Amino acid sequence: MQFTSIAFFLFFTGVFGLYWFVCKKNLKLQNFLLLASSYIFYGFWDWRFLALLVGSSAITYYLGPKIAETHGKTKKIYLNTGLVLAIGTLFYFKYFGFFIDSFADLFDIKNKITLSIILPLGISFYTFRIVSYFLDIKNNKLKPETDALALFNYIAFFPSMTSGPIDKGGLLLPQLKKERIFKAEDGADAARQILYGAFKKLVVANSITPITQGIFQNYEAHSGSTVAFGAILFLFELYADFSGYSDMAVGFARLLGFKITKNFAFPLFAQNIAEYWRKWHISLTSWLTEYVFTPLVIQFRDYGKRGLIAAIILNFILIGAWHGPRFTFVLFGLLHGLYYIPLIVKDKLNKKKKITGNFPTLTELGNILLTMVMVCFALVLFAAPDLKAALGMYGKIFSISLFSVPQFIKIKILGLIGILILIDWMNKDQEHGLDVKRLNPLARRGLYVFLIFLIMYYGVFSNGSYIYEQF
Q1: Confidence band of 357 (pLDDT split at 50, 70, 90)
Q2: Apex CA 167: angle with CA 27 and CA 371, to 5°?
Q3: Residues 20-62: pLDDT tens digits?
Q4: Where are the transmembrane segments (predicted)?
Q5: Is residue 204 located within the same domain as residue 75?
Q6: What CA–CA distance (Å, rounded) separates 28 from 167?
Q7: What are the φ and ψ backbone dihedral angles of 60, each rounded to 5 degrees?
Q8: C-beta pairs of 443-450 under 8 Å, 24+ apart in sequence
């Protein structure tokens, strides 16, 4: 059930009405409805995996207090049991088939058994929630949740099930246990965020998708300039698709009275790769920073900058691997880790450059463009189905045909990307791309009508898929 589908619109409208009008002022009833809605949402995709979600939640509920109440070896046993079950389940569904096939290829096993394992919806997102819950209890940052309804809701929360963000228990659990009041102002702002998310997904991302697919799936027939142009378009497609879905997730959660993690902060205007990752998929990068990168830095602290470089590279290899069982994803992460080396050597890793003017200076613009080039270069690995295809694309890009005129340049696509960049730029210091409360009412309404017109006229509703649901 995609956020942009009629089925979800009818589903959410029904949930919203029951939630605020029938279950109003009854917290337990609201939470029960919320959990039932999350399971219906999940089951709409495939009921068979609903048992896995419920079972994971039940194990988490049982192990939480055990981790908190025990000490020494017993505590480690409960913690490791929870982590192994959570991560092991993710590994089986997401990576086991890949390793079996790779093993068979390595030893040239001709009569190999090809495993067809379906990846459960949102398993990467809810697994990371469970893992952070266990680790926060172990580190005394969070008390184990005794309210089963709240905990089960935290794990299965449907607005962020398929796209993230990866909320931690310390943020979402307290909100599940206190009365929620609908405020018209918050509802209006949530609707604005949903509208902008729908524009990014339906109009920008879905319009670009056929072009990038046509280029990458048949890259041998295209010039280097066309493949390079495809990589640039893919950055905007991926950003519009993922951030658009995240905007809608945040907006739907706000309509239900929840404030969840902001996942994007205008990464297209980042002036270096470190700033880009502070603004892109924020919940994943902050999760890995807390639970992977920081422990690695502490472990490698005696090695100075070399230790910091090693920690960052390992962290980004994990970011790449999180996306799926492909060597190209691992290399994608490795390349981003290597991008950090000049910043570390020059002690500029944590240096933040905020653009304060209405227009970027030439230096700021140069930094932005250089960062985009670096990101687009790495995205070839992200887009390629395998290493052979990635090398073929890079071979095209570094050929003399790079200096030819690229194909597939469409004024409509460039215009839609231009509108996206303009709106983002105008609101780069705001909470989200359509946070336009500061504008006068006439200008605001004109912008809303304009975006609705673009969605109705240029929106591609036939492509209901969402790039990150495969992760």
Answers
A1: confident
A2: 150
A3: 999 988 999 999 999 999 999 998 887 888 999 999 999 999 9
A4: 6-22, 51-68, 77-93, 113-135, 307-323, 329-345, 365-385, 405-426, 447-468
A5: no
A6: 21
A7: -65, -45
A8: 448/192, 448/195
**Residue 412: what residue type?**
K
Quick one: tokens of 339?
């991008």
Query: Which residue type does 168 have?
Result: K
CB 447 within 8 A of CB 439: yes
3-state DSSP assignment of residue 67:
helix
Confidence of residue 233 (pLDDT cuts 50, 70, 90): very high
Residues 135 and 217 in one domain: no
How far from each other are the two terminal CA atoms of the chain, in whole angstroms? 16
Residues 62, 192 within the same domain: no
**175-185, pLDDT tens digit by residue?**
999 999 899 99
Write out the two tokens for 364.
């700021």
Residue type, 176: L
Peptide bond connecting 295 to the previous residue in cis, omega within 30 degrees of 0: no
Residues 39 and 176 in one domain: yes
- How far is the C-alpha of 432 from the C-alpha of 211, rounded, in Å? 28
346: which residues sit within 8 A by CB, 6+ positions away? none
Cβ neighbors of 48 (< 8 A, separation 6 or more) are none
Owning domain of residue 83:
6-181
Going by C-beta distance under 8 Å and a sequence separation of 6 or more, which residues neighbour residue 413?
A: 207, 208, 211, 233
Single-letter amino acid code for the residue at 237: E
